[in-house]
Amino acid sequence: MKKLLMMTVALAGMVLCGADKPADKGFMAGFNQADITPPLGTPISGYYSRRAATGVLDPLLTRCLALSDGTNRALVYSVDNLHITDDIIALIKSEITRKTGVPAGAIFIACTHTHTGAGTRAGGVSALPEDKPVVDFANQLLAARCADAGVCALQDLSAASLLIGRGEAKGISFVRRFLMKDGTTRTNPGANNPNIDHALGEPDEQLQLVRFVRPGKKEIALVNFQCHPDVIGGTKFSGDWPGLSCRYLKDAMGGEIEVLFINGAQGDTNHCIVHPRPGHTAPKGYAHANHMARVVAGAALATWSTCVPVAAGKVQATVVGVKVRHNKGTPEQEVLAEKWVALHKAGKAAEIPGVGMERTSNTAMAYRVLELKDKPDEIDLPVSVVSVGQSLVLGGFPGEPFTWMGTEMKRRSPFAMTIPACCCNGSRGYFPVKSAYGPGGYENATSRFAAGTAEGLVDGIVKQFEAFYAK
């Protein structure tokens, strides 16, 4: 049955997508992936408590797509990691440039945002002194493997044509922010909470697919969807559903393709079903991650045959700064933050006000206020852009964009296909939309940036889209 499905999809692709169409003159694409799984005992990113890896559910990978027009080159990475701090991004890019000659501005490093990936910070809020050597080793390994993947992807460059398609992956992503009946906002208020009034938005269930068809070589598929990969939990490494979806799609195509996944605007969504159907029991943990991966891979397969050819062209890439304001605390909040951070560091987090995510939000707010106390009022945030002709553009934010940022970017982009990316070339936390700043809610409590940042970042990245499109 699997072979029959593969043959049907492949044949349909040849008929509908022009898979035998000659490659676009001068345009080339290449691919490589490398294992970045560090030793057990390495801290795992995420949450406000320490986790160290005790096992491996599936290997962590860095996947690299190389693009060239014969003159200009760019490297697009998808890394199985929560997020990579700015200093480690600089380390990785330096090593990539040293080995490949590709400049830093043409290197697009997007994390999938898995919450079961290796930590890149040795000084996290719950770190131990012995964490630093293992984190340093994991970061050096990450830099070396990303650079090696870049070298091999460039060696794999081959004439290619470009095809694009859109589908839907439904029922696996849900807005996680809710207006409560008391007028406050809650993140993840729990299933069947009677105090929920309504969800603050709708998820973007659109799946985007880019196919790089290379005569005589394996085709490369880029899959784009958006949802928080925080499904598994625990202390075992895993790429969560983004990594698993790559495996399922490749397997469904008989291993005859390469796949990388770019996670989009996922900052206000996750997998939690707050209002389950009566009698409905959803899978949990690793089983749920596999379920989501099958839905994503299935949506990509359903889209495969409907892709249409588009012209390739000049490859362009840059990283530009957008000026934003810090979300600094008031004097009163600073006093409270000192108290709550002291409680958290003393192992007395239960004494911080709130229940569940409310307490986590208060803890996050406290650390954010103290972190920004002596910071400047304004800062430049980097946004990253890679484009191919007037057909394809990738836009990366250095943190966690809300759903609106992805849908608005796609709506305003002049390109035929626009791929939003979270946690790209930096790790600056959440970018809530203006309406999200108010009483309650984890994302606005922890955000380092003032209201208006999300809208400003979209304006900045679309401006760069328009500049590249016009060239």
Describe the protein in words.
The protein has 471 residues and is an alpha+beta fold. Helix content is 32%, strand content 25%. It has ten helices and 23 strands. Helix 4 packs across helix 5, helix 6 (331-345) packs across helix 7 and helix 8 (403-412) packs parallel to helix 10 (453-470). The longest helix is centred in the first third of the chain and has 25 residues, at 131-155. The protein is globular. Residues 1-20 have low confidence and may be disordered.
Beta fraction of the residues?
25-35%
What does the largest sheet look like? 5 strands, mixed
| Measured distance between first and last alpha carbons | 47 Å
Low-confidence spans: pLDDT under 50, at least 5 residues?
1-20
The count of strands amounts to 23
Fraction in helix: 25-40%
User: Gyration radius, to the nearest Å?
Assistant: 22 Å
Average pLDDT taken over every residue: 91
Q: Helix and strand layout, with pairings?
A:
Blueprint: H1 2-16, E1 28-35, E2 55-56, E3 61-68, E4 73-79, H2 86-100, E5 107-111, H3 131-155, E6 158-159, E7 161-168, E8 174-175, E9 177-180, E10 185-187, E11 196-199, E12 206-213, E13 219-225, E14 236-237, H4 240-252, E15 257-263, E16 269-270, H5 285-304, E17 308-310, E18 315-325, H6 331-345, H7 357-372, E19 378-388, E20 392-396, E21 400-401, H8 403-412, E22 417-421, E23 430-431, H9 442-446, H10 453-470
Parallel strand pairs: 2-14, 4-5, 13-15, 20-22, 21-23
Antiparallel strand pairs: 1-3, 1-6, 3-4, 7-12, 7-17, 8-16, 9-10, 9-11, 12-13, 18-19, 19-20
Helix pairs in contact: 2-3, 4-5, 6-7, 8-10
